[in-house]
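Continuing the series of single-chain predictions for the mutant panel. This is the parent chain; the variants come on the following pages.
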Amino acid sequence: MTEQNDAVWTDQSGQRWPKRPAHETGVFGRCPRCNEGHIFTGFLTLRDHCEVCGLDYSFADPADGPAVFVQLFACVPGVIFILMLEIMARPPLWVHLAVGVPVLILTTILPMRPIKGWLVAAQFTTRAQEAGTSALWAKLHDK
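Parent structure:
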């Protein structure tokens, strides 16, 4: 892609796409270029390309990033809640199972997809790349 101005992407065919922030597209699982296609085929499985604009998602490699963010920002408050429940109320084991398991599931599984989508979109919008992958980005961004 070649940049015409700061608000538009131009792909190899000359099609112009408005630039969108990663938090507006990726969090909802939408393509970072057209905002119409989807990033995922399953819950966390990335597509090969966007079904609408054809953007190749081979640049995307969020690796363990989503899991780290979930552990740091979502799971820790859930565990603190469960510990505080024990310290303040000392409920029986069945209460911990009835309350604690859903809290841990909600704070670990639900945030994974939006965070992974956000990281994939952020890689696209910031042109993030690993060392030695500049040829791939040159192909994707037509430079």
